[in-house]
Amino acid sequence: MKLSQIRLLVKDIHKSVAFYRDVMEFPLGFFAEEMQFASFNTGETKIEIFSRQNMAEVIEEEYLPTGAEPQSKFLLTFAVDEVDEVCARLKDKGVVLLNEPHDRQAWNARVAHLRDPDGNVIELYKHPL
């Protein structure tokens, strides 16, 4: 398992893209407005931003409006060779998945999500499909 990116879950994708691109001066690698997703080239580990509302839908978490808590604010993304295999091992260790491994065609990836003991979201993915 290899940490591939840290994904910040943001309220306003346009403000966040402008901040990381223009203020922090990270090169914008990819921006998909329809997916509310952007990726910045920051070296070996990328920083990505993604709409909180969209991620709430992916992990079936109730989306809470501005100012309400708790709402996931970031997730750790790990690239794995086989999502299903890793998830089976984790389930054997008592991990409860937020969603079973599934293909996300728009992301060109197979993914699954879980939480660590403090409630932080972890994404396991294999890209491309």
UniProtKB/TrEMBL annotation:
Superkingdom of source: Bacteria
Residues annotated as domain VOC: 2-127
InterPro entries: Glyas_Bleomycin-R_OHBP_Dase, Glyas_Fos-R_dOase_dom, MMCE/EMCE_epimerase, VOC_core
Molecular function terms from GO: metal ion binding; methylmalonyl-CoA epimerase activity
SUPFAM superfamilies named in the record: Glyoxalase/Bleomycin resistance protein/Dihydroxybiphenyl dioxygenase
Keywords: Metal-binding
Species name: Paenibacillus foliorum
Pfam families noted in UniProt: Glyoxalase
Coiled coil: none
PROSITE patterns for the chain: VOC
Protein name (record): VOC family protein
Keyword Metal-binding appears in the UniProt entry: yes
GO biological process, one term: L-methylmalonyl-CoA metabolic process
